[in-house]
Design a protein that fits this description.
Elements lengths: L10 E5 L12 H9 L6 E8 L9 E4 L2 E8 L8 H18 L4 E4 L2 H4 L12 E5 L17 H17 L2 E4 L2 H12 L3 E3 L13 H10 L7 E6 L8 H11 L5 E6 L5 H11 L3 E5 L6 H7 L2 E4 L8 H8 L4 E4 L13 E4 L4 H13 L4 H6 L6 H27 L1
Parallel strand pairs: 1-2, 1-5, 2-4, 5-6, 6-7, 7-8, 9-10, 9-12, 10-11, 12-13, 13-14
Antiparallel strand pairs: 3-4
Helix pairs in contact: 4-5, 6-9, 7-8, 7-11
Length: about 400
């Protein structure tokens, strides 16, 4: 079949510095990608990183229409920031990626964009998906990277991306303002994250099974957190809040994820003598069971965009307590959770007490995010890709005449 005939068939190259075999690093971006790619009609090739025994340059099948190719190695414990590792990895493999034949590049981290917006000889259109408006360098787990100099470097990189990319996708109004202010006006789409509502749904049978497995009685408030165990997520505040609210509510805390702060958080939970379960990395296809088991998801982060864990939890009918940052206020409201202005243990503890008394129904909570379906998102973004590819073809034809 001849590709690109009327733009009906093309290859999407997704750039994301994640190991999609090992699902590392665990985070919202990789979760978002895994949610949407089964709904793409076009062929997808993801170029990412390899962890452990994941073989470089081997093509792994993910879904019927998508494959994953790891191009460089990353370590779970490294002194080199992942963003720098990704930049170097994609610089080294840029030619290999371009020559593999993608008709469009869909890129999910700013440092990974840089190699493809300069000297792109085949003029493959580049779409950057911005997952948050905050400067992530200022909250890096590597202390040296938080230096003002590196924060300014990141801002320069972001402005360059806005000006040179073919299109920018932003996930909330803050990102949209930022992109349009710094050079992307007229080539930006606001498209909030999407969730697979067939996978993440209210499931009472699973709820009963999981609560029985972990000995959670009906009068136990099951509190859940999913994400990286790093300073930026404020998990220590959540643990302390459980200790404060324990006098009023019987609770169990479950933490899904890993990070440099795990040992510190384990010591904190032990010292406060709270019922805390460290689950480690939970496979994405098992998260729905934990959302359904839980009575509330708490995400007291310092910075966020539109977190996948919030969309997934709400889709499963689980109310949310979250910090009022990024795009969170656009999805969490009085009908499905509680927003916190400035998270501290007492404020979170108070919110837990409120949630325990609230009259939310899981079905109503699930319906509050019905508009964020993966099918709709995939359809919209593929239409955008087709337009950009058609525009590139017209320019190419004009230049060859």
């Amino acid at each position: 079949m001849k590709r690109l005939k009327n733009n009906k068939n093309y290859i999407v190259g997704i750039i994301s510095p994640t190991d999609f075999v090992k699902r590392y690093p665990f985070g919202g971006t990789s979760g978002f990608i895994q949610n949407i790619i089964p709904f793409f009609k076009q062929k997808i090739k993801i170029f990412g990183a390899g962890v452990g025994d994941t073989q470089l340059y081997k093509e792994y099948s993910l879904f019927r229409n998508s494959t994953f190719v790891p191009l460089f190695k990353i370590s779970r414990n490294t002194m080199m920031p992942l963003r720098l590792k990704a930049l170097i990895g994609y610089l080294k493999n840029k030619k290999k990626i371009i020559e593999s034949g993608p008709d469009i590049l869909y890129i999910h981290s700013p440092e990974s964009v840089l190699p493809f917006i300069f000297l792109n000889k085949k003029n493959v259109p580049v779409v950057y998906h911005q997952h948050g408006s905050a400067n992530p360098v200022s909250f890096s787990k590597h202390l040296f990277a938080r230096n003002r100099f590196f924060q300014n470097v990141f801002n320069v990189i972001l402005k360059t991306i806005y000006k040179r990319c073919d299109w920018i996708i932003v996930i909330d109004k803050l990102c949209l303002e930022q992109a349009e202010r710094f050079g992307a006006k007229g080539k930006t789409s606001l498209m909030m994250n999407a969730v697979d509502r067939k996978q993440f749904r209210v499931d009472n049978a699973t709820r009963d099974r999981m609560r029985a497995k972990y000995n959670c009685s009906e009068n136990t408030l099951v509190v859940f957190f999913a994400g990286r165990l790093e300073h930026v997520k404020n998990v220590d505040l959540l643990i302390k809040s459980i200790s404060i609210a324990n006098d009023k509510i019987k609770m169990k805390l479950f933490l899904a994820g890993d990070g440099t702060q795990r040992a510190v958080l384990e010591d904190l939970a032990n010292s406060l003598n709270i019922d805390c379960n460290f689950l480690g990395q939970v496979p994405h296809n098992r998260l729905a069971a934990y959302y359904n088991m839980s009575d509330v998801l708490v995400l007291p982060s310092k910075i966020e965009g539109v977190p996948m864990v919030i969309l997934e939890a709400l889709s499963c009918g689980t109310p949310v307590i979250a910090t009022k940052v990024g795009g969170i206020p656009e999805i969490v409201n009085k009908t499905n959770g509680i927003l916190i202005e400035n998270p501290d243990p007492n404020t979170i503890a108070s919110a837990l007490v409120q949630i325990n008394k609230a009259n939310f129904t899981r079905t109503q909570i699930s319906e509050s995010v019905s508009q964020f379906s993966t099918e709709q998102f995939a359809e919209s973004i593929e239409a955008l890709f087709a337009q950009l590819i058609a525009k590139k073809e017209l320019l190419t034809q004009h230049e060859t005449k």
